[in-house]
Every structure is written in C-alpha cells, then in structure tokens.
Amino acid sequence: MLQYARPLQRLLNALERLPGIGPKNAQRLAFHLLRADEAEVQEFAAALSDLKARIRPCTQCFNYSEGDLCPICADPRREAAAICVVEEASDVMALERSGEYHGLYHVLGGRLSPLSGVGHDEINLDALLERVRGGEVTEVILATSPTVEGDATALEIARLVEQMVAAGELASAPKLTRIALGLPVGGDLDYADGLTLARAMRGRTVVEDG
Ligand SMILES: [Zn+2]
Hints:
This protein has 210 residues and is of the alpha/beta class. The chain has helices at residues 6-16, 23-35, 38-54, 89-98, 125-134, 148-166, 194-202, and strands at residues 56-57, 64-65, 79-86, 103-107, 139-142, 175-178, 205-206.
C-alpha cells in the first residue's frame, strides 16, 4: 500500500539509505524540505548533483578535489617533505580538524586485506611509493586505522619504503612514524575528536624495524 505521494516516498527511500538516518529522521528531513522555500531546495539539489559531477581524486594524494590538485596539495604553505598516509579521504578531514598537522597527505582508498581480496593493486600504494621515490620526503607518517588490517598496512608500507632505502633508490631514508592512537581497537580515525587526533599526531613514534 502506498503511504506517501510517490515523489515523497522516493525522497524517503533515498534518505533512509544514508548512514545514521532511520525512517523517523528521513521523514523529518523530507518534511523540512517540503516546507522549505524553492530556492533552498534547489540549492540542496544542485549541491547533490555537483558532488558526483565535479569532485574527483586529487592527482597527487587522492583526496577529494575539484581541480587536478586538492586544496591541501595546492597550498604552498604546507610542508611538502611530510606525507601522512591515511585510508580514506574522510580521515584527511578528521586530521585537518585537529589542526596539528601541516604536511601533505596520501589517501590509500582502503587498507590491505588479503582475506577480502584487497592487495597492493587495490589501494593507491604504488602512487605513494612513487611520491617517496620522486620527492624530497623526510617523513612518512602512517595514520592508517588502529585495526589489525590498518596496522598490517602500516607495517607493509614501512617494509616497502625500507626496501627502497636498502636498494639505494632514495637519496636519504625518510623517517617512518606511526601515530599514537589511544583509540579503541577497531575504531576509525573519523570517530576520533580533534583533540585525540592532535595528541595522536604529536605522540607519533618511529616504526621499529621489524
Ligand atoms: Zn592532494
């Protein structure tokens, strides 16, 4: 039985697919939009359609970007010698909120997970090694999630960089550090508040040769 007018039901279905939005919240949002003036709703719709059409990965760090380079890579005030490696672009936003870090990022787009078929080629790992190889990188900060797979990904990156150093591919060995996350195991960076992440960044430790 159709409970709502069809356009309203369509909007409710779309809203309910969003994370954290249940039927009640979807209804609240939909009714808000119905009551809102035309211009506000048009602006909302335009923002949504622009999102997919105009956002693409930064060609250097894979963060969300409108142009070739994301605003962070394009900012000359950022310390280009430091690369902070994260799993998702949302982690960049989280670390930026901490205000503690002023270097560049590299978004892997996931973490190594052999059991789920996520290997080296499924994440932006080669591009990271290229950046380390090509640039004047003095520190690689491993800020993958405090999960078993996030830890394994961090160690694998450290191993690959050390391999390049051992093979004489780098002019000098970058420092490899891991952020000190006092987060519950399994937690994502995204859930941590700015203060926790600032502390994690300040307390980062050198990755020991394994
Ligand atoms: Zn970028």
